[in-house]
Write a structure and sequence with these properties.
The protein has 512 residues and is mainly alpha-helical. The protein has helices at 8-11, 20-54, 58-86, 88-106, 112-140, 144-175, 185-199, 213-236, 241-260, 274-304, 309-315, 317-334, 339-360, 365-393, 399-432, 441-449, 451-461, 463-502. It has a single domain, classed as Growth Hormone, Chain: A. It is built from 18 helices and no strands.
């Protein structure tokens, strides 16, 4: 089988090149991406501080992380479709204003419930941010080679936020109350709001058709229950099948309606394109593995190793830098080598990183650093290629809807990574935790809830009993890490198989 593919699909440049204004617009579009990435990472590393202050249950801990993604997932398709119709820049600016105001409101959260509600409200406005950035990239960079570079920068900003979030957030958590992490949204989005009207050109579907109110409602009734149900399956078991079933039913109605409309809010024929649907599946599996890794490594480094949030973030910088570098390095390769070869080859590195954790355990910090470097290299390269395929496979007029579908896959991956893998890790921890003799009943019950609970009780008890409880909690948690690492490696393998079997099937790319 030849390695090189010099087909038009592989090397087409298909559009005029952007000037300096386009690259300046890219910088503006990366600001909300940076914010969302920092926001997600800060919460992972701020979770121990939140747990100590608000004392959430294990379910509430997951909700604090997931509420944003669940609401956002339910509204992404709607926001993308509205952007195609009323203007993608306009939707972006509305989302930025709302996200800023809600972030300020989260600062005053007195309870876990309040914080969950604030995170859900962020999801409403976050849904307007992410699809708009990717669809505006499509309209700004019509030259495919430039678009690959821009998308590598876009994806790299996620990795950069993942590195900066724990460091900046860790500094804030160590010197100020944890509520201060939400104030980061204010300067980032204020800068974007100041520059966007001058550097971003408005774009929309020239023939959008009427706004589909029923379609909007059906998409929300499908996506939100699906995301909620999958989370509940991980937490409470079979009861989560009820919302999943409801979501699937409304999803069927949504698809049926879209296929009958002359101007659908989501063109269902996109999913018939192997490169579009295959790339979505690759991203979904990769994000699940990535978020699952961050979920356990952030807790291990802080509560077991004993690093501060800032130093825990610094430990992951090499992986984030590698992810950024891999995204740019794969760009010239993707011009000539088929995606069905590039993506699976890159994902081999990700599998190796996860298997290293499973084989060696999570005891050595340097081993975790190396594992994240391998994972970042593999996923950074693979997602840069798959994101470009998603954008280039869709007609320009439908860029908002296509970007929304891509972001939906991302958010579902984040939800599944936290809830499914996090739920498995929590269940494994509870089953394998052996409470030492001498631990009071109330302290034992709290220790069984979460690793944070065990460490807090161990510190309160002190002495030999406290040390024994701390060691028991660490052992149970790290045993669960081995299991979830193997599952994550399996997910990356699935992504590689999907890429090898779908991304090589050519179809004439959509015109730019």
């Amino acid at each position: 089988m030849p390695v090189l593919s010099l087909s038009t699909d592989a090397i087409a440049t298909d559009g005029p090149r952007a000037d300096w204004r386009g690259w300046a617009a890219l910088v503006v579009l990366m600001l909300p991406v940076l914010l969302v990435s920092i926001d997600n990472t800060i919460l992972n590393f701020a979770l121990p501080a939140i747990a100590r202050d608000l004392k959430p249950s294990s379910a509430e801990q997951l909700w604090i992380i997931d509420a944003y993604s669940l609401v956002l997932a339910g509204l992404l398709v709607t926001a993308g479709s509205l952007g195609d119709r009323i203007g993608r820049r306009r939707i972006l600016l509305l989302g930025a204003v709302g996200f800023t105001l809600v972030s300020i409101g989260a600062v005053f959260a007195p309870s876990a419930g309040w914080l969950i509600v604030a995170r859900a409200a962020m999801g409403v406005f976050g849904a307007a941010l992410m699809p708009s950035t990717m669809s505006l990239l499509r309209s700004t960079f019509r030259n495919r080679d430039q678009r690959r570079i821009a998308l590598a920068a876009w994806a790299g900003m996620f990795a950069a936020g993942g590195a900066l979030g724990p460091i900046v957030g860790g500094f804030l958590i160590e010197h100020f109350p944890w509520q201060s992490v939400f104030l980061l949204a204010v300067p980032i989005l204020a800068l974007m709001l100041a520059l966007a009207p001058f550097l971003l050109k408005e774009s929309r579907d020239p023939e959008p058709g009427p706004i589909d109110g029923w379609g909007i409602l059906l998409s929300m009734l499908a996506l939100a229950p699906l995301a909620y149900g999958t989370k509940e399956i991980a937490v409470v078991g079979a009861a989560g099948l009820v919302p999943v079933s409801a979501g699937l039913a409304f999803g069927w109605l949504f698809v049926r309606r879209q296929r009958r409309l002359p101007h659908p809010m989501l063109d269902m024929t996109l999913f018939r394109r192997p490169k579009f649907s295959g790339s979505l599946a690759v991203n979904l599996c990769c994000i699940m593995a990535h978020i699952g890794f961050l979920y356990f490594v952030s807790q291990h480094l802080q509560m077991i190793v004993g690093l501060t949030p800032m130093w825990a973030g610094i430990a992951l910088i090499p992986g984030a830098i590698t992810s950024i570098a891999a995204g740019f390095a794969v760009t010239p390769i993707a011009r000539r080598v088929r995606a069905s070869i590039v993506v699976p080859s890159a994902l081999v590195l990700g599998v190796a990183g996860l298997l290293l954790v499973a084989a060696a355990g999570a005891h050595d910090v340097w081993m975790l650093v190396l594992s994240f470097v391998l994972l970042g290299a593999g996923l950074g390269a693979a997602e840069t290629v798959s994101n470009e395929l998603i954008i280039s496979s869709a007609p320009p007029a439908k860029a908002g809807a296509a970007s929304a579908v891509s972001e939906t896959a991302y958010e579902f991956g984040a939800v599944l990574g936290t809830s499914i893998l996090g739920g498995i890790l929590t269940a494994w921890y509870r089953v394998t935790l052996r409470i030492p003799e001498g631990v009071p009943h109330d302290a034992a019950e709290h220790a069984r809830e979460t690793l944070a609970g065990a460490m807090n009780e161990a510190e309160a008890l002190g002495g030999d009993v406290g040390d024994a409880l701390r060691q028991a909690g660490a052992a149970a948690f790290d045993d669960g890490v081995v299991a979830t690492s193997l599952i994550s490696a399996g997910l990356v393998v699935i992504a590689g198989v999907v890429a090898a079997t779908t991304l090589g099937r050519s179809r004439k790319p959509a015109s730019s």
